[in-house]
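ok trying this again, last paste got cut off
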Amino acid sequence: MKRYRIVLIFIEQIGSEAWDNWEALGIGYLASMLRQRENYVEIVKIPSIIKDCHVNEILDKKPDVVGFTLPCAFEERFKQLGSKLKEQNPQLHITCGNRYATDNANYLLTSNSWLDSVIRGEGEYTIVELVETLEEDGSLSGVLGVHYKENGKIIQNPDRPLPENLDLLPFPARDMIKDMKGEKHAWLITARGCVNKCSFCNSSFKGIQRGKVWRGRSPENIVDEMKYVINETGCTNFFIVDSSYESPGNFGKKRIQEIASEILKSNIDVNYGVYFCANTWNDNDLPLLELLRKSGLEYAFIGIEAGTEKGIELYNKKATIEDNYRILDLFRRAQLGTKVGFILWHPYLSYDELKENIEFLYKSNIGYSFRNYACMLYPYKGTAIYEQIKKDGLLIGDYDTELGHYNWKFADERLEPLKNFLCDFLDHTACFMKAASLEYKILSLINRTTNYLLRHELSTELIDRFREQVDLIYKQLNEQNHKFILSIISCFELNKSEGELSSIKKEMIMKTTELVDTLEKEEMLYIKRSIRANLIRERINVN
């Protein structure tokens, strides 16, 4: 029997260089499952602007099945590419998956005559059965987890139960790492499912597939995959994309302790980042954080999202404001880097809540980061917050297939011009863009270098001095941003003149430029000193 040839496609998002180093881990798992049964599988990354040459590139591989991973922002380019492929090869079976496809299976099949099927939920076992059935020219009626067309009708098969033992899955194919530009990063899943219920999140398939929501892999299996990635690609930098790495509860913390111990026992030299919740950490966890740091933990992305009681309730966060303050302080004392999720702008925001959030950013010393003043809520279909905004009549227009979410309006219309001004000002002014780029670069440099030096019992004097200088500059930025952002808010709230607003902008740009230039000079000075002291190795990225 002929084994089908499969092409799995990832389409880049428009206008984002970050996609150069984006790894589509889901189709990596699908590719490995299919390769286990000796199918020819190729993963193809297509640029955001689709041309005929990209269609030819795919067809030249002579696929029998083409599969798309379909995040919400890619729908228009998915339609453009899929329709052209089907037009040139009507025999192709075209399918798609991912969260957006799962939530919108019937709509996608109805609105795209060329689309043959949609895989709902976690798709490793489903795609194998789909391909096996197509190879045998059988009916898809028995394939769980598939919606498909038959004689012009859309057939909805029952959803497939969630896979229970993740250790049984093959390691995902890492084809995309080989094409990454600059420093390589591998994504890693140590568990699937999320026990939290944030109102804005659509990241997992809970409620769609039967089975235990949270499922974790064994520490040995996880570290074996790290070793596999290092051996296959040379990549030693990982980002663990579990919704919350320390979940669930006390068992979760014991588990990540075991993973860290297994990394150290295996004597592999890795750096990794994770997602953490704010509500589960306290001073008793300092020994655990120290162990995680020793094993290579570089930073944690902490989903704080709000600095007000109203915001915490709206986003259905388990953490309190006190929890948010505590985890930031804890990580500073543990000398671990933090990136913060903070959704400042939402439809129910008032001027009072806005100013309360600005005070939280200032008092928690994360107001130095300009992106925290420009992040807004993106309501995705199927989330609790989407349903609430829709019920309250605050959605604007239809689903935005280019941006990948629904747009909304403020209940207090006075906030719209302020939001538009601040987001445009902070997102598109050179000094703020440079500050954002430096923030990530310096975070990585400080934490990766510190971990390396401590692991090898080398002096941290130079990096400690550099950290002190960075903290001082960030403190100045925090103070400055607090002052200027409140002044801008006041201009809009009190309808002050354009001249006064222009004066604030000019002064903020000038002072920010000075501080950001100083930050960059301190970085270069540290690098020069470290090179002279022979403390920077080639693998620590300083470019």
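PB: full thing came through this time. The domain at 5-156 is CATH 3.40.50.2300 (Rossmann fold).
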